[in-house]
Structure formats: C-alpha cells, structure tokens
Amino acid sequence: MSKIRAFIIRNDRVIQRLLEILPGFFSWNLILFPYWGILVIPNVVAYFILSYNIYWFYQSAQIAVSAAISHFKIQASMAYDWLADLKVFPDWKKVHHVIIIPTYKEPLHILERTLESIANQTMPKDQITIALAMEGKEPEEDRLIKVKALESKYGNVFGNFLICVHTLVPGEVAGKASNERFAALEVKEKLINSGKIPIEYSIVTSCDADHVYHKNHFSYLAYLFLDDPHRYEHFWQPAVLFYNNIWKIPAITRIINSIGSIVHIALLSRKDRLINMSNYSLSFKLLDDVDYWDADKIPEDWGIFFKSYYKKQGKIEVEPLYLPIYADAAQGESLAKTLRNEYEQKRRWAWGASDDPWIIKNYFLTPGVPFWDKTLRVLYALQSHFLWPVHFFIITIGLQLPILLNPRFAKTALGYTVPKLSSFVLSCALVFLLIMLLLDRIYKPKRPKEFPLWRAILSPLEYFLMPVAGFFFSALPGLDAHTRLMLGKYIEYKVTEKV
Cβ contacts of residue 169 below 8 Å, gap of 6+? Predict the structure, then answer.
C-alpha cells in the first residue's frame, strides 16, 4: 500500500486526469456494449441484459420496502412531542442551531417562506442563529432590498440573524460550498470565538433557500444530538421532497421529482447507503475539525461527507432524521425554461462524479480507515455516479435495438427467451411502483383549486411518461456531465431559477 501511495503522489496530475476520464469511459462503454457485443458475443450480451434487469428489480424492491418502513417512522416523528423529550436533558438549553442559508438571486417570497418555517419551530427561537449567506456578485440594490425586508421581519425573532456577503477570491469556484464556508467562518468569528454560543453544543444545518421545515425539525435534531454519544462523528439527514411547487410544473418533470422524492424517503432506512445531501446537519465541532467545505469544489454534500470520513479515519456515519423537508422542483417562467432548468439541475447533480477522483485517491492515501468499510463506501459512491446514465439504456431499450443488428441471434432460443424474461421481470417490478405511487399521494400537497380535477384524476397516467422523462432528465444530463468531465470541459455552478 505504501508503494501505491508513493506512486499516486508522484504522478498526481496524470492520475487525476485519468480518474476524471473514468466515469465517462465506464458509462459510454457500458451503454455501447450491447450494440457491438451482440455481433461478437451475443450470449454474453443477453445474460448481461437479463442480469441487469434482475438487478433493477432488486433495486425497485428495496426502494419500495425501505420507503414504506421510512414512511411509518416519519409519520410517528411528525406526531411526536420532541421538545418534551429534549427537555429531559439537563443541558438542553445549551444546544444552538446555526442554519446557513446560501442564496443567490432567490426571490424575497422564497426566502420568507423558508424563514417562516424556521420561525414556526417548536424549538425556542433564541437557540437558533440564521446565517443568510449571500453572494457579492448579486446586484447590490436587489440584495439590499431583500436584506432590509428580512431583517425587519425576522431580525428580532431568532437568537442571531447574520448577513454574510461572500465575494469570490482566487482559488475558489462559485457555488454552495464556497458560500457556506465563508458564512460558517463568519459565524465562528462573530459568535463562537466571542463566546456567545458554545462550539460543543452548536449544530450546523446546510439549508437551501427554498426549503420548508416541519415544525418539529430542530427539536428532533437537538434531541438526536444530545442523545448521541458519538455526536461529533455523525451527520443527520432528513427526507428532501420536491413538492413545494409540484402542481405548477409539467407532467414530464413532475414524475421525475415525485420518484426522486420517494427515493429520498427510502434512503432514510438504508444507513448502509445514506450519505448526506441537499439539506443536512452536523456538529459545528466536526465541521471545524475537518476545515469546513472545500471552496474549490462544486459538489458540497458528498464532498463534506467524504472529507470528514477520511479525516476521521472512517468513524463518520449519517443518521436518519425521520421528517420531511419540502423543496422546490426546478421551474421557469415558461415551459421551455422549466425543462431547461430541470435538465441543468440534474446535470449539476450528476457532476458529483467530479468528486470521484478525490474519493478514489484518498482511498489509497488515507491510512487507518477500516478496509471493508471504506471499500463498501467507495463502491457505493462509484456505483451511484457511474451507473447514473446507464440505467435508461439497459432497462428501457434492453435487447430490442441490439437484436436488429443481429437478427440471426433473435431466432435462437436464447435470443427469443431473454427479451421475454426481461419483460416479465420488469413487469413484476411495477408492483413496487404502486407502493411508490401510494406514498407519493400521501406526501404530495393537496391539489390547489386552480389545478383541474380531471387532470388530478388522470395524474397516475403520467407515469407512462417515465421512459421519456428518464431519458431527458436522467440519462442525458448524466451522460452530458460524464462526457464533459472526461473531456476536461468543466461546468460552472448555476443556481436553479426560482419563481
């Protein structure tokens, strides 16, 4: 292992570039394999397609079962009096929530909606600090109008209300990570170093500007924090549901966001796969120990997890917080802008593959991390990123198009049987889709009056759009991100438009 470390360090730039090529190389080859393989090794292609469909059946089953388990726990947590349990701890008044809200050009009403959900918490508001993380490149006049309105309405509601204006410096890239890092350092300087809040009892929450909390969220989080003997080695993750504006977006993007929301519910019950994302919390002490988010990276959620994981030699875990957080799905002022925003958002998420070179290198460079644990963690990260663009092509197209290139194989027993077996397996998986549909109905907000009743009744039929939606808003943006990374055409961070 020491020789591998020395080799990586000695050839860092070359290895970095090769590892950047790896996600695109893998996904493109896996997608194209059935088309050339059907001419050379048709039997292998057939078994590959069948195995992949069985794998997809298993994934659908575990999502449905895990989502059902999470659902019951979420319902219990929503009804429970977490503040009463929190008060059992003699030091509960020392707990302080630092909520960092990065924002860039979000409309005032979006920010007010988020802050109002925090103001309605059962947690005492004097134990909450708001750090509104704004960007200096936003037009000053627009920024000051929002600051004035928000300070007037919420400045005296919370224990502290900080306005942090971040300006990019050399070595940083525009994005959530650099903005949050600046805001966290401002909080440390103004509140922690001055002794106003204790770092040992401070919990940092990364909150997008469009997120809406359940009223029990921060009482529940404080309880989990105090009840956890390993509180400085844990993240806490709720279920992020893209339902705030779900009735305002077109059917083709509504289905993508509905399925994504149910997957987030399911992940809470899978601690082996749970990695913090979008909205999450950790102790300020852990954040300080690992030197905050990396300002030179676009992906920040998985980035801060693996940075903490390696620095703490594998002792980091993500604990589920069984409550929903409602977020905005990508939307624009027109249908075309909505579709474009959805595509760009999914491409930015798929750009998480740019973390893979760093994750892989540190797998070999970081000593003291348990071998099997780090191996499973890294394999799950690579599976999530590498297979992102692949699913659509294998599941939807399967052997149908490749067989057109080799019609002789279609007449063999294997060529005849495998497509039928694959179809049967995928049809069985529709049972799990029904469970997801039921959960979607439970968590989706009620139909607004302006949304026609007949469209709501027919909404289950929207799922027939899954193949089209899967191609344009999963496979294609994923392949776009992989290809750009492979070619060294790095993307810039683009904030999803809010309306």
Answer: none
- Rounded Cα–Cα distance for residues 234 and 230 (Å): 7
Q: Give the span between the Cα atoms of 394 and 31, in whole angstroms.
A: 7
Question: What is d(CA 331, CA 327) in angstroms, rounded to the nearest whole number?
Answer: 12
- In 3-state terms, the chain is what percent helix, strand and coil (to 5)? 60, 10, 25
* Assessment of whether the complete model's pTM goes beyond 0.85: yes
Say what the alpha-carbon torsion angle 460, 466, 472, 476 is, to the nearest 10 degrees: 150
15 CB contacts (<8 Å, ≥6 apart)? 8, 357, 361
Cβ distance 443 to 246 under 8 Å?
no
The tens place of each residue's pLDDT in the chain, 499 residues long, gives 677 888 888 888 999 999 999 999 999 999 999 999 999 999 999 999 999 999 999 999 999 999 999 999 999 999 999 999 999 999 999 999 999 999 999 999 999 999 999 999 999 999 999 999 999 999 999 999 999 999 999 999 999 999 999 999 998 988 899 999 999 999 999 999 999 999 999 999 999 999 999 999 999 999 999 999 999 999 999 999 999 999 999 999 999 999 999 999 999 999 888 999 999 999 999 999 999 999 988 888 999 999 999 999 999 999 999 999 999 999 998 999 999 999 999 999 999 999 999 999 999 999 999 999 999 999 999 999 999 999 999 988 887 888 888 888 888 888 888 888 888 888 888 888 889 889 999 999 998 888 888 777 777 788 888 889 999 999 999 999 999 999 999 887 666 666 6
